[in-house]
Amino acid sequence: MEIQRVKKLIKGFFNPNKSVAQIRCALNNFGDIMTFKAIQEMLWELTIITFWSSGAKMQFFDSILGLDKLFKYSSLGGGTLIFAPRSSGWLTDLEFIIARTIPLFTFGTGVIDPNFIDHLNEISGKKNLIDKSNIDEWITCLKKFRLVSVRGVESQMLLRNVGFSNVEVVGDPGLWFSLDSIKERNIKKKIGINVSEYSHFWNNGQKKFIQKMTELLNILLKDNWEITFFPTMFEDVCTSQGVASNLNSGENIIYENYYDVKDYLKKLEDQDLFVGVKLHSVIAACCAYTPAIMIGYQPKCYDFMKTMGLEDHFFRSDRFEVDEIYGKINLMYKDIATIQKKQFEACKLFKERLQNFGDRIMETVTGC
Q: Domain check: are 162 and 203 in the same one?
């Protein structure tokens, strides 16, 4: 991985006019892998190098060569980053980079809902770190970018509510991988499942969520559904194993190849339905045109579903009831083709928006 970074840095040194320093979420999970690969494919003519929680590395390169010798541009990539508290490192890193390069674009970035953070802080008794000062500092950064796009309509609304209106919705970058057609399927009660306890949940309700999902899955098994778990990260694999051990069947599959986006989609294409909690597990299901229920653990999940026109298939992780989801599964199973068509149309729309946004980025680069 470091070898690839060095190769990119050398390439950037010899052609800085097409080199971009990017701040993004770069954890070892399916969502971050999916969004970064999508942006790389759309902007294949650019050399994009990620700096993530790497202030020391940025300062090193800046002190030795100067970041402007390696990068002409900077960007904000995938992840729910905007409004993140300064303590997370995102804001500080972004300020450092845009002070030394031309801030060019944000690409389908998510915006954190301050009310959700207030909710979590109230439960835990912690100090609110996303205050007006923090938000103002983010807006100051965003105003410097030539092109600003966000993941969804809720993200756009959050920015407009604080007076930043020069922002467009292009969809999540992961939608770039949506398939070209709907595969004809042999329907036989196969359902993909994503369970997770990782990160913040509404009402800190991870344990209750897992209990309800285990109950739901046992009902599905009794109803002769074939279950395949789709983790998005190592922690999800462990959670899936724990849930599977409490099911009334030893034949459940755990698909662990979340590093390979296209293979992940191919496996999802074989499912009749999907139920997931992590955002990009459901985005992937939509890309494969597998009708999906989102049991969202954070506002960013609703942001995506509303943007896609699929909010009828959204349930909050702290509010759903087992009978409610089971009933929804049965209704969707009877109407798979209609839902697939809706997914296809939404994916087509946002894939075009992503492509158009990428084209405008390239026009800006080549026009300078």
A: no
pLDDT of residue 8: 57
pTM: 0.94
- Residue that terminates a domain, selected from 105, 137, 169: 169
Token output for 258: 């979340």
Same domain, 195 and 130: no
Q: At 158, list the tokens.
A: 């959050």
User: Would you say 215 and 322 are in contact if contact means Cβ atoms under 8 Å apart?
Assistant: yes
Instruction: Give yes or no: residues 339 and 253 share one domain.
Output: yes
Q: Which residues of the chain have pLDDT under 70?
A: 1-16, 52-58, 61, 368
pLDDT given at position 314: 98
Pick the closest to residue 287 from 211, 192, 167, 187 (CA basis): 192
The answer to whether residues 291 and 152 belong to one domain is no
Contact predicate 109/168, CB 8 Å: no
Structure tokens at 209: 């969520």
Q: Which residues pair with 274 in a beta bridge?
A: 192, 292
Distance CA 133, CA 120 (A): 19
Same domain, yes or no: 12 and 136 = yes
> In angstroms, rounded to a whole number, what is the distance separating the alpha carbons of residues 352 and 150?
15
199 shares a domain with 104: no
The answer to the question of residue 181 being in a domain is: no
Q: Name the residue type at position 331.
A: L
CA 298 to chain centre: 12
Helix (H, G, I), strand (E, B) or coil at 81: strand
Q: Residue 10 is inside which H or E element, if any?
A: helix 2-14
